[in-house]
């Protein structure tokens, strides 16, 4: 059994797309543990704010099968795999941690390097999995998040209510 941590984000109808993605993920990987959702500015391009959250679940599936199912959920939310990397997204689902697996393959590095650089990934991940020890940094997500907040105190993550209907 692997403990999986996934980042989810959207800046195209984000509340609806995140709700849809969570429903799809629950069908595949229930039970889910889900962080609060947070809005933050787009990174790498000019665009609407993203809404991001983290999802945690256990699975017996191999990593590549989990990634295939995440890609299927992205597609169901309207994401084209051929879309530019730094552009608006209907849905982005990224594996942050897959147990304590460390790998570097074409198109996949685990743990995801952005986890240690992006507050919108680390904050929600630390919220639902504070005790997880990052396999290469060898510190808990809670410790890493606390340190990031000290280094980048001005980075604002604004809570978004996914239950809203508008």
How do the helices and strands line up, and which of them pair or pack?
Blueprint: E1 2-10, H1 14-29, E2 33-34, E3 37-40, E4 50-59, H2 63-76, E5 92-98, E6 103-105, E7 108-110, H3 119-128, H4 141-151, E8 158-160
Antiparallel strand pairs: 1-4, 1-5, 2-4, 3-4, 3-8, 6-7
Distance between the termini: 38 Å
The number of distinct structural domains comes to 1
Taking pLDDT < 50 over at least 5 consecutive residues as the criterion, the unreliable ranges are: none
Structural class: alpha+beta
Number of DSSP-assigned strands = 8
Assign a percent range to the helix content: 25-40%
Number of helices: 4
Overall residue-averaged pLDDT value: 92
Major sheet: 6 strands, antiparallel
- Tell me, what is the CATH class? Alpha Beta
Order of helices and strands: EHEEEHEEEHHE
What's the Cα radius of gyration?
15 Å
Structural account:
- It is a single chain.
- By secondary structure, this protein is of the alpha+beta class.
- It is built from four helices and eight strands, in the order βαβββαβββααβ.
- It has helices at 14-29, 63-76, 119-128, 141-151; strands at residues 2-10, 33-34, 37-40, 50-59, 92-98, 103-105, 108-110, 158-160.
- Helix 1 (14-29) packs antiparallel against helix 2 (63-76) and helix 3 packs antiparallel against helix 4.
- The N and C termini lie far apart (38 Å).
